[in-house]
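Anyone able to model this chain together with acetyl coenzyme *A?
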Amino acid sequence: MKNAVINGTGSYLPERSVTNQDLEAKLDTSHEWILTRTGISSRHVASEHETTSFMACKAAEKAVEASDIEANDIDLILVATCTPNHFFPSMACHVQKALKISKPIPAFDVSAACSGFVYAMDIARQYITSGTVKHVLVIGSESMSRALDWSDRSTCVLFGDGAGAVVLSASEKSGILASTLHALHDEEALLSYPNYATEPHKAFIGMRGNEVFKLAVNIMGDVVDEVLQDCHLQKSDINWLIPHQANIRIIQAIAKKLNLPMSQVIVTIENQGNTSAASIPLALDYSIREQRIKRGELLLIESFGGGMTWGAMVIRY
Ligand code: ACO
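re: yes, here you go
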C-alpha cells in the first residue's frame, strides 16, 4: 500500500491588508482588545478580482510548481471552502480550467467550514492509499470578508481571506500516518452562515464566540490524543503543531496540553486572522518556504469549525 505524501505546497494572500487601527476608525473596537483577545493585528481582505476561485488557482499553481509533477499528472482536485463564489461550477472545476488540465479528472468542493482542509486531506489520503489515484491537489480557499457583517464587531475583526494548497502524492515514503474526523450537529447554533438565497436578512457569519472558545479547547485536546493513539506516537514525538488559526489563546491552550513550547507551533494568525479552511495550508506553506519545517519531521494538524466539525492528522513531512 502506498502512502499519501506532501509533494509540494503553495499559497496566496490578497494584496490588501487591513489593520486593527483601520477597523478602530469604523467600529467600536480597539487594537488592544482585538490583539489581546485573539492575537490578530491585521488580516488580508480580497479585492473584487480576488475571488475564492482566483485565490485557489493561484495557490494551486504554486503548489504544482513546488512539486515534482506537472498539472496534467493530477488525478483529483479537492477545494475546501465555505465561501465559494459559485456553487457550480465548483471551485475545483475552476482550478481544473486554470491549470489547463485536459483530462476529465474528478474535481469537487468540500464543505466543513474551518475543518474543511483536514476533511479534504483525509479524502485525498483515502483515494491514494486505496490505489485509486496517484496525485491529488488539495486546496483550502476562503473569502471570509464577503461572509461578514462589517458592522458586527464580534465577528468582523476575526476573519481574513486567502488560500493554501498541497499536492499529495502516492509514495513508498512515510506521509499521512493517521487522521481522525468528527461532526456533530450544532444544536445550540453556536456557529452559522446561512445561504443568502434562503435567508437574505441574516446571510452573515454568526458566532457565540465565548461558547465556541470553550468547546474548541476541550474538543481539540481530545482529538489530538485520539489521533496520536491511532499511530502509536507520543506527544513528545511531535516536531510541529500546525493548528487552525482561530484564536491565539486556543492555540496556546492546545500547545500546553501537548507540552509543546510555542517555538514548535506555527502561528500565522497575527497577520492573517482566521482564514477558515485556508488557515492550515497557508501556515504549512509559509513554514515550509521559511525552511522551518524540514523533511522527515512529524507534523500535527488540527482544526475545529462550524457544523460542528473537527479533526486532526499526523503527517511525516
Ligand atoms: N471590540 C471590543 N469589544 C468587543 C469586540 C470587539 N471587536 N467584540 C466583542 N466585544 C465585547 C463584547 O460585547 C463583550 O462586552 P460585554 O462584556 O460588555 O458584553 C466583551 O467584549 C467580551 O466578549 P466575549 O465574547 O466574552 O469575549 P471573548 O473573550 O470570548 O472573546 C472571541 C471573543 C475572540 C470571539 C473568542 O470567544 C473566540 O475566539 N472564540 C472562538 C472563535 C473560534 O474558534 N471560531 C472557530 C471557528 S470559526 C468557523 O468555523 C467559521
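The pocket of acetyl coenzyme *A is lined by residues 29, 33-34, 37-38, 113-114, 153-154, 157-158, 191, 209-210, 212-213, 216, 246-247, 250, 274, 276, 304-306 (CB under 6 Å).
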